[in-house]
Amino acid sequence: xxxxxxxxxxxxxxxxxxxxxxxxxxxxxxxxxxxxxxxxxxxxxxxxxxxxxxxxxxxxxxxxxxxxxxxxxxxxxxxxxxxxxxxxxxxxxxxxxxxxxxxxxxxxxxxxxxxxxxxxxxxxxxxxxxxxxxxxxxxx
Length: 140
Fold this sequence. Notes:
Layout: E1 2-8, H1 18-22, E2 28-31, E3 34-37, E4 58-64, H2 70-79
Antiparallel strand pairs: 1-4, 2-3
């Protein structure tokens, strides 16, 4: 089938990746530091990637290409869905490092006390106070 798809000029491409983010179908990827059309059937030919390219490396061409496959695009994008976080920032995601339980020892002074934190170092003002690694932790 002859249809309109994008063409990427590798000589002009600086590998910034803006087109990858702009392509809602996942048709463009960075390979060896250059943008590449990964699959013809992922490109819908609408060109959301064109205006974001700072070097003008992306253009349209009419050529023999596989028909746009909306079902394949949906399946591909579903497999790439990141874990949803409350604010969208990966740094806010609480993680727990599992370790063996230690025996409770009497606390005499700070120099001999053993920490029960499972995540270290901790900047208390940057983490949620109800994070799971604070369970049974003696901070002060």
